[in-house]
Amino acid sequence: MVSINRQWWEHLAPKVMHRRAREIEALLQAWTRSGYGAMWLESARQEGGLIRVKPGQNIPVVHIVGIQDRPMFIAPQKKVEEGHRTVSDDDERMMSGRPLESGELAMRPQILVDLMDDPALLNAALMGQTSGHIIGVKHPATLFSAPAWLLLAPTAWPKKAFVLYQHIFGSGNSYPNDGYFYVGVTTRSWQARWAEHRRAMNNGSPLLFHRRLREEMDAGRVTYIHHKVMGITEDLEQLYATEEFLVAGHWDDQRRLNMIPGGKSGLKYMREHGMLLSRLVPAPDERDRIVSEWLRANPRKGLPAPWVSEKWKDDAWAVAQICGRDGRLSVEQVRAIRSLAQDHATEEIADRIGALNADQVQRVLDGKTYTRVT
Which residue among 32, 72, 198, 209 sits deepest, i.e. has the most Cβ atoms within 10 Å of its Cβ? Predict the structure, then answer.
């Protein structure tokens, strides 16, 4: 039996989707009776569940589509393409202990719901248009996605959890994940935070996220807005660390709309540039307001170049970040692996240096990981 947790559904999903929970449950129930669906469900009910995929295989996302008030349906799954990338450390946390092969990815099972009621989108759907820009869209489709376990088998309490999310928007072939994006965190429902973003956008906010969304909407270049829940936690430290990692991992992406680093690096940046008093620690939701006020007060200065963009060019600093998270090898361990490889087998090296397993050692020797450590 597949059931959606109502508390989490109403806490995370857009209100327009709340009444369709039973319909979505019925579709999931039928879909998970297949061989692939049953495998997906087993992983989807685990908080740390991951599915290994290679190019040509299904991306483990159940994509449910609703067109106006017509019966919803599950769209065909998309395939992993060559060059598909993720920003995560999931290759180090595979429950099987077997490392990822070259080109293989570890992906979390996701549920994606897409509701559209705009006439232009409806006409395009009826004509089978699945790519390219759709002209005349006044009400972009509303998309919502989240890790499946969070909706099917949550372990936390909504009112105590912090949410890490992305807002993604665009048109044409960028649908549904490749448009402009903004990574954010909130200690409340992201829906309340999204309402604040929209008000700020309509009121002329100078933040890049608000400005770009406003410009693209005015130009008729937004056919979808995707609200993507990346994860939840009751640990604020973990929330900041994950946000920082995601923003840094996407820092060179031209579609990124975050103007400052994430997490505690963002707080440090704000203090260094006079946006925060040294002892003030704002709530995650308050950082955008502070940056916006600074930009309004300093319209000619512009935002100072974020220090993290320069830091990532510094090999020593980058190595410290790469080797500084749980489950990762230290700089000393990486150097020891290369030194011991001349006379010892990978299994022995793993035992000597305390690696997770021999495969972690082999990936270093093959030049697949830790290439910046010299």
Answer: 209
